[in-house]
Structure to design on (320 residues):
């Protein structure tokens, strides 16, 4: 038993150092993007390229979201309080939601700029476009490389943005080279529209995923099923109900469950059973677990509440 509690404190320390590196990685990406976004807006105006402006807005969205993620990842380290007993990990989900909304707004603005240009395209300054594109590939590529080691939902979202940005700059570079030799000014707004629609599609996908976690949907159905199977396979376990599996931030999961046992047990047996539950749940790396044992014939105290998942109030349904 002593060994188990030691393992827990060790894990906790590991988590903390892991989060510190998250924070420094995000800090790096923030300053790179922040300085570069300013260069881009100026460059977009000077070169008269709406594709570069589209990228600048995207990078502005990224800079804001990275700054927010950085701040929230630091705040997320704070210990739990009486009021926020689960700690502050959920703030990163809030951050992901806000980022998504910022990018949707920025994309709408670019579309409103680019679509009228289709009818009346203007020729951008190609040399400037090429220079900015090369810079964009280097800066975003480096920032994406820095963040590729991240595990949190926030870092995954940011890393995906940065990879997109890099790809976007590759596209800008190709268009700039083509425009340098052929006068097809319409390529510039076409590129910005395609790029913006691509961003919107991905952002909306992430917003939906974040919403699910926000509303405490199960983060992983197969994992939930695996946990149920593991608990049901234990000796003396008759059935499970009120199994709630949700996530704090997409990475740290929480489990609560009622476990019905089929025999009356003394303290020694109960302790062994609890240790067995501990050992079997260990591979799932859960952040919080609450297991309620119910003895034979004992009524479930949560049966009358709205969380009850079975059609009958007093009959337990076996999870097969």
């Amino acid at each position: 038993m002593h060994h188990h509690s030691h393992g827990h404190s060790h894990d906790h320390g590991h988590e903390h150092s892991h989060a510190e590196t998250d924070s420094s990685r995000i800090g790096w990406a923030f300053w790179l993007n922040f300085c570069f976004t300013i260069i881009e807006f100026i460059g977009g105006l000077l070169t008269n390229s709406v594709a570069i402006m589209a990228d600048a807005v995207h990078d502005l969205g990224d800079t804001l979201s990275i700054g927010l993620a950085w701040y929230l990842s630091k705040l997320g380290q704070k210990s739990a309080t009486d009021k926020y007993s689960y700690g502050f990990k959920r703030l990163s989900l809030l951050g992901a939601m806000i980022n998504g909304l910022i990018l949707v707004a920025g994309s709408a603005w670019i579309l409103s700029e680019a679509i009228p240009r289709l009818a009346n395209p203007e020729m951008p300054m190609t040399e400037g476009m090429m220079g900015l594109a090369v810079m964009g590939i280097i800066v975003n590529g480096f920032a994406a490389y820095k963040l590729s080691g991240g595990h949190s939902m926030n870092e995954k979202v940011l890393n995906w943005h940065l990879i997109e940005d890099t790809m976007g700059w590759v596209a800008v570079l190709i268009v700039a080279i083509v425009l340098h030799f052929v006068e097809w000014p319409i390529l510039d707004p076409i590129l910005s529209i395609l790029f913006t629609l691509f961003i919107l599609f991905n952002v909306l996908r992430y917003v939906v995923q974040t919403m699910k976690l926000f509303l405490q949907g199960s983060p992983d159905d197969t994992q939930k099923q695996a946990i149920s199977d593991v608990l049901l396979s234990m000796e003396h376990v008759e059935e499970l109900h009120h199994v709630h599996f949700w996530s704090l931030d997409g990475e740290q999961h929480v489990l609560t469950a009622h476990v019905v046992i089929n025999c009356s047990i003394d303290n020694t047996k109960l302790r062994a059973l609890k240790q067995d539950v501990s050992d079997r749940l260990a591979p799932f790396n859960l952040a919080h677990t609450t297991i309620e044992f119910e003895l034979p014939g004992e009524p479930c105290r949560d049966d009358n509440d709205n969380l009850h998942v079975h059609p009958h109030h007093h009959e337990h349904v076996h999870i097969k």
User: Anything to note?
Assistant: The helical segments are 2-47, 50-75, 91-119, 126-147, 153-181, 187-214, 221-232, 267-281. The mean pLDDT is 78.
